[in-house]
Here is the input.
Amino acid sequence: MKRVFVSRKLKPEGALFTYFNLVDSNVSYDDWSMLDFSPVPFDYPNTSWIFFYSQQGVRYFYHGQKMILAERYRVACFAERTAALVKSFGITADFVGSGDAKEVATNIRDKFTHELVTFIHGRASLRSVQHLLTPDFPECIVYDQRMIERPLTAVYDIAIITSPMNARSFWKNGGKAHNYIAIGPTTASEIQNRKFNCVIAKQPSEKSLVQAVKQFL
Here is the structure.
């Protein structure tokens, strides 16, 4: 039996949960985030556009204010998963990126020639898109994140890592794996910087992660 670690809590409706529980019985898995999140005070942006890197940014930005803010901003998202959460709040994203920082930065540079967009993210964000843009765009920090302490004693056959900070927390807690799968290029760079090889999901989605997992099973 293969042992898998996933750096997020899987939802029953998700592709990974379905695959591990209903399709492949030769897998046991541990699924939890290696990070802890908390809100921080912030002022709402003055720009007409806002950009979300992640679902956490969406949750903390709109918390308790969805109806009030729905008509105030046009929304851009880093990838489909984040846009899906925005849509669950009754708001449709006007721009949805591919999940690749370089490609998204190019799209934003072309789209926002005469407009400013505020980037919504956590305090420890790598700002992977912003670093590729000139001039600097405004930002709004809406949450803090820290690495948790949860010792990992197992050696996993596969570790599915969903963010660079999750990768760092995985190793800080003693995590070990024979094979790594990264949800995107930015996370892959973090893994490769530690001299580990990894497979990169073709898209930042659970369906693509399932396809990557199949390479090792």
